[in-house]
Design goal:
6-stranded mixed beta sheet; globular; metal-binding; alpha/beta; 5-stranded parallel beta sheet; thioether bond; EC 1.8.7.1; 25 helices
Length: about 850
Amino acid sequence: MPVDVTPHDDATTAKRKLVVVGNGMAGARTVEEILSRGGSELFDVTMIGDEPYGNYNRIMLSHVLSGEATLDDDDLMLNPMAWYRENGVTLYSGDSAEGIDRFAKTVTCASGRVIDFDVLIIATGSNTFFPNMDGLRESDGRLARGVFGFRTISDTNGMLQMATARDDVRAVVIGGGLLGLEAAYGLKTQGVDVDVVHSPGHLMNQQLDERGGKVLRNKIEELGVGVHTGKRTTAVLRTDDGTVSGVGFADGESLPADMIVVTAGIRPNVELARSAGLVIERGIVVDDQMRCEDEGSIYAVGECCQHRSEVYGLVAPLWEQAVVLADVITGANPHAEYHGSRLTTKLKVAGVDVAAMGVKGPEREDDEFVQFYEPRSGIYKSVVVRDDKLIGAMLLGDISKANFLTQAFDDKVPLPEERISMLFDMGTPSAETGAAELADDVQVCNCNGVTKGDIVSCVQSGCTSVSEVCAKTRAGKGCGSCKPLVGDIVEFAAGDALTVDKSADWYVPCIPLTKPELIDAIKRQDLRSVSEVFEKLAPDGEDATAKMPLSSLLRVIWGTGWNREPGALFVNDRVHANIQRDGTFSVVPQMKGGVTSPQQLRKIADVAEKYDIPMIKATGGQRIDLLGVKKEDLPKVWKDLDMPSGYAYGKSFRTVKTCVGTDYCRFGLGDSTALGIAIETRYQGLESPAKLKLAVTGCPRNCAEALCKDFGVVAIGDGKWEILVGGAAGAHIRKGDLLATVDSPEEVIRLCGIFIQYYREQAKWLERTYAWVPRIGIEELRAILVDDRDGIVAGLQERIDEAVADYVDPWLDRDEPRSPAQFTSALPLLPLPKVPVR
């Protein structure tokens, strides 16, 4: 149903009726600019948006997909519903404009609503371009089930549901531009196997040259994403029941896939304008004041419009257009003109820093061209100079010179005689002094159109912390690549008045305490439930996003002594199993060190047959996964298995991989199997900020992959063991740092417990060790945990001993469920796809 957000206005002064078709980033930003120029005194503003939300930041959707943000984050929603009421703007959300009568000056909506206007702004943006491909759509024109664009909250939600429904989802992303790589990165972070297919010869060909594309490809492939360039997709392959099974290429080859994400470009959304009789070429044709051709009171702004033959797909030109349009229609500057944008791009693509501006390479014989190309380190830099002016630059992997190059590109600083110094600190402004050197009109945040001058003015108005400045200006709230520079500018502008942003260290946003302070407060006040913590410690009361991190923390502090509230737990934690794509669950029994027995294997086979479990799969953690278990069958499955939980569903200690070690291996230097089993027996199931994966390998050949685990142990001979921490081999690839070399299995087990307990008490919610270890620093961790510099090891040992002694297998809930509904069947709220039985 359409949502009507209508302000109450008792003013009797006649105002002109301003209607904005489109509630996206361009339309809402234009309204913001109009209001800032006194527009509320001039106009009754009405906005029409076909999505049932306020205005949100589409750039943040990639962060939502990767798990770095949620749909509840304030950074995502730029203008929540309350903003429209507070600013006297009528918003019809969840409705769409279907017709414009230019002569009667009305807009007709899908709901049947007819809205009069004096001034009309069309900001309908762009749509995902779906190439003609066999099998892409159903017979009624809808996209096939499993095919997505990447443009809206709905797209992102659909991908997340499918990506997190089961462990073996495969995805193909069609299009290797910025959006495609962000989609691939996000899905890979969610554990999906991803391939990117790109028709041109190299990735991000619109921004990068061939060498830059090659360096980026290396970085993307290091993430575990497959890259296929020079491939034209011609078909979406589907099974007899219509389920997506892969994609087919023009050369006859194919790739398997359960999910297909199409990011092959965007096209201006001009159908409404076309049906109204406006002049359309590639986009809605506008003049330098954003006025539609041959019209006196209809304007267009953003990705839907075409200005001087150019159509822009980046946000920075949108902000420039919005300023001009607001100046013109409010009369703040009736002669304001938009003359086009010189595009400079600075962003983070799948974790890789990229900056590009102007041309990609030399176009004339006398163009100067300087390149630095080092694919081994993932760095590529180039500049193009013509007539002593910078006309193009490209930075990948190291963008420390982006600020200087941006100013040079805008003719604000002279070029050095030694052109190579434009790429390295050889006399040009360094990254450290860049904040002071920047001109006030240099755009710092491309995503939200924030200049250095905006940030400085914000500081001068009284905002003296980075978080305050970001909240007020929105700098850093898009892709995030500008945050370091924003911090530098705030520090430069605030000087001695700079205040530390304490909230950045709070464990949850609603409670003004660091994690150690919060632990102390919970213990002192004996708070044992999430609701008690909210009541006593959260100034503004309950915050839904804080429930899961708080419930995890309470389990760390009190073990089984915390007061369990089902509403504070994710479904996986409520039923001790991992929910799958079709609403069933997976059951992974414990197999310590990956070792099992004929008796256990017979039980697993018998249970799978008895409960008609459709898939039995070996996992990467050396265990067996039973997939497709009904919720109501979980207690019976656990009872018949008579094996402990393997914790494959939780933010906890999960498993210890081992190699054969000295039992059978001819190269074994240490009994890795016995040590792995001993570690898992002692620390099984311990609650932690994020999942913990461990491994013990019997020699440096590393068959158990201990070098890239949260806690890895390697036998090196003479009874010695190396301990590595902070490794990763999933969406992030990182070799662990050497914490210590010890000379006994007992010392390995002791240090393992101390490390885990310190991580449990200090790390942020969902912060994996591969991020936590480098944040703290391996030297610091070694000083604290190995050398006991601060005298806290005894306390850590005492608390880990208490946690171990308090262990209870969660699958014992089968005997006494925690609530009547814990294991009752629940119909899905949305139709779920069927998972094929293989």
